[in-house]
Amino acid sequence: MPDYKAPLREIQFVMNEVLESEKHYASLPGCEDATPDMVNAIIEEGAKFAERVLAPLNQVGDQEGCQFNDGDVKTPTGFKEAYQQYVEGGWPSLSHDPAHGGQGLPESIGTIISEMVGTANWSWGMYPGLSHGAMNTLSEHGTDEQKAVYLTKLVSGEWTGTMCLTESHCGTDLGLLRTKAEPQADGSYKISGSKIFISAGEHDMAENIIHIVLARLPDAPAGTKGISLFIVPKFMPQGDAVGARNGVVCGSIEHKMGIHGNATCVLNFDDATGYLIGPPNKGLNCMFTFMNTARLGTALQGLAHAEWGFQNSLPYAKDRLQMRSLTGAKNTDGAADPIIVHPAVRNMLLTQKAFAEGGRALIYFCAQLVDKAKLAGADEKLEADALLAFLTPIAKAFLTETGFESANHGVQVYGGHGYIAEWGMEQNVRDARISMLYEGTTQIQALDLLGRKVLMSQGESLKGFTKIVHKFCKEHANNDAMKPFVEPLATLNHEWGELTMKVGMKAMQDREEVGAAAVDYLMYSGYVTLAYFWARMAQQAQLALDQGTSEEAFYKAKVTTARFYFARLLPRTRAHAEIMQSGAESLMALDTEHFVF
Fold first, then answer.
1. pTM listed for this prediction
2. Where are the domains of the chain?
3. Catalytic residue chosen out of the listed positions 202, 439, 585, 593
4. Which segments constitute the Acyl-CoA dehydrogenase/oxidase N-terminal domain (predicted)?
């Protein structure tokens, strides 16, 4: 049976040693109580919940799925009870404002809990995950009255939340949406239309569901400039309880490739009562609060599938006997050697390990930027916001692509057994596949990164990160132990800017060059970004070894994995660099009518 064990030592290494969380929290107003002892206690309790409660339900959710019955949805066995334990443990309120019942802890601590919850059981974790985004949106854009009515209940976990964006005809192009919002005399609106692909849109785990919905006012301009944002509750609030059913009904749930334990709903709004969030026709701006939360959450999904794949591939590779080592028998008492002795298997295991551990460092770094964007002074907030905007599409797209690759390696390590459901490896692949699609596909993230973030800022957003990398490389340039990491990283960091300029110059002549280069540009950016974090981890591990440590094996493994990343994974940048420079002509030359079979 597949299993999950929270990688507490790995988490502590990144959080405490690489990213110096104690210093980070001490620098933020209101976070002084986030001491190492407190944070470790929270993480250890979160690990117990993930391991003991959620992980055993992972296959249950996949096998049973959600049951739809005339508008109602029943979640898999144990899901509702697990959610009640989650609420009783105070987990929904962890990183939210005490004014609304939250515990006031930094977002980065909540991110660690989300990682463990998501890795143990991604389908289940999506229910509170969507609520978190709804809370952030209300917290930033809601009125005081809306916060009092809705945010308090969401923070306690008594109610859950969703985001309702797309419709059947528009996909990612939200400018095409048709859902209408008619103003009413009492200041409310009547919302009518249908939304699809609404994760956690209907379920039996909480007494109310608060939908955050994009819709158009009657006089709204066309396109994305005419979208407004609304709160639409499943049940109308009545004092401290729920009252009458609102005009929103689940029409069906999707039959999906994976994440069967989470209900993906078609929601039909029929004159449902809603309330405007933020200014009219500025809904997409407000919704980006939710979407950016969700994009970092989806980056976590990539990490989760890589980590889960590695954890469940490793014991099998150590136990499964097959063939002899090319350098002679290693298991002389057995008929064959364990497959972990074979270079091809080690390549897959180390790839999973490198993507999981490197991805964790990237996400935790982004989570600290979220802390700063919320709590730091004005100048530091602006800097954190800009850096976060640049790194979010990289984290979302690159980590989901590499998470899916890692999940597939898990099947391959098991061989034929990986294709069989009882081992759980094929479920990991199916569950991972959606991550590259929702919250903006890899291709959309790539356009956002190259076109919107980098080229539209004339490279300034890129410079914000490459300066950080340059400073690190310069600081460790004379450290002989770091040269295998610093020298290639410095070279690629410089090339990153040159490639950007080349693509930008071509794009001035032909805008198709942006779309042609974008995905390879993003993947190149991802490999270089992870190289920076692996170099930082190697430096910290080497420092511990030089100073003498009782955990020599742990730190040696870090340095060795960093060497693997630089030797075996970072060279993939060469292909991406060549492809992004090859131009749009080969993609656009074939006339549409000649695409035939």
1. 0.97
2. 287-446, 457-592
3. 439
4. 41-158
